[in-house]
C-alpha cells in the first residue's frame, strides 16, 4: 500500500506497512497537526469512523462555528464521529503565523478536536484529502465548508459555510 505524507508543503509517497486494508487511499495520508511537530495518518487514527471534515480560517467571519464544531465533537466523539479541521489560507483569511492560528482555535474557542496545520484545500495544490472531497462532492467555495464522510470514506453530504454545525446533528445521528 502506498502512503502519502504531506509536511511543510512537501508530499512524500512511501510504502506503508500498516493494516488499513479497508481505508480509502486518499485517507492514507499523513499530515502535521496545527502548531505541532506531531503528525496524524488518517487511516491509522480514524479508519472505520465517520468523519466531519472542515476547512477553517482564523480570520473568517464564520470562525464562531468553531464552538459548534467543538460541541459536535464532544457530543458525538464518544459514539465514533471524528471531527477534523484543516486550517487553510486558500481564501486568504488564515493567520500567517501558525501560533496565532492555534491561539484562535485552542485558546479563543477551546477546540479539542483534531486540527491540521495550514494547507491548501482548493485547486491543483489542494491536499489529498480535499482533492478527493472535491471530486466526490464539490470543492469548498469558502472557509468552513463541511463534509460528512461515512466509515468507508464516501462523502455523504457537503455543507456550505453558512450552514451552522448544529444543523448537521440529524445527519450525524443517521450515520452513527
Describe this structure as you would to a colleague:
Helices cover about 25% and strands about 25% of the residues. The protein is an alpha/beta fold and about 180 residues long. The chain has a 5-stranded mixed sheet with strand order 7-6-5-8-9, covered by helices on one side. Strands 2-1-3-4 form a 4-stranded mixed sheet. The model is unreliable at about 10-20 (pLDDT under 50).
List the helices and strands and how they pair.
Blueprint: E1 2-7, E2 10-15, E3 29-32, E4 39-41, H1 42-46, E5 51-56, H2 65-76, E6 82-87, H3 98-108, E7 114-116, H4 128-136, E8 146-149, E9 155-159, H5 169-175
Parallel strand pairs: 1-3, 5-6, 6-7
Antiparallel strand pairs: 1-2, 3-4, 5-8, 8-9
Structural class: alpha/beta
The largest pleated sheet is described as:
5 strands, mixed
Question: pLDDT below 50 for ≥5 consecutive residues: which ranges?
Answer: 9-20
Taking Cα atoms only, what radius of gyration do you get, to the nearest Å?
15 Å
The SSE string, one letter per element, is EEEEHEHEHEHEEH
Order of adjacent strands in the largest pleated sheet: 7-6-5-8-9
Give the beta-strand count. Answer: 9
Amino acid at each position: 500500500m502506498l502512503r502519502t505524507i504531506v509536511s511543510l508543503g512537501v508530499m512524500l509517497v512511501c510504502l506503508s506497512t500498516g493494516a488499513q486494508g479497508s481505508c480509502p487511499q486518499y485517507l492514507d495520508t499523513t499530515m502535521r497537526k496545527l502548531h505541532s511537530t506531531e503528525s496524524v495518518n488518517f487511516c491509522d487514527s480514524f479508519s472505520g469512523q465517520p468523519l466531519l471534515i472542515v476547512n477553517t480560517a482564523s480570520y473568517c467571519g464564520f470562525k464562531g462555528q468553531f464552538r459548534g464544531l467543538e460541541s459536535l465533537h464532544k457530543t458525538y466523539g464518544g459514539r465514533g464521529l471524528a471531527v477534523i479541521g484543516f486550517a487553510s489560507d486558500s481564501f486568504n483569511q488564515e493567520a500567517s503565523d501558525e501560533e496565532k492560528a492555534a491561539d484562535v482555535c485552542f485558546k479563543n474557542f477551546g477546540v479539542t478536536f483534531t486540527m491540521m496545520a495550514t494547507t491548501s484545500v482548493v485547486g491543483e495544490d489542494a491536499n489529498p484529502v480535499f482533492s478527493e472531497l472535491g471530486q466526490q462532492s464539490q470543492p469548498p467555495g469558502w472557509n468552513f465548508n463541511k463534509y460528512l464522510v461515512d466509515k468507508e470514506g464516501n462523502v455523504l453530504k457537503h455543507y456550505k459555510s453558512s450552514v451552522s454545525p448544529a444543523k448537521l446533528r440529524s445527519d450525524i445521528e443517521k450515520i452513527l
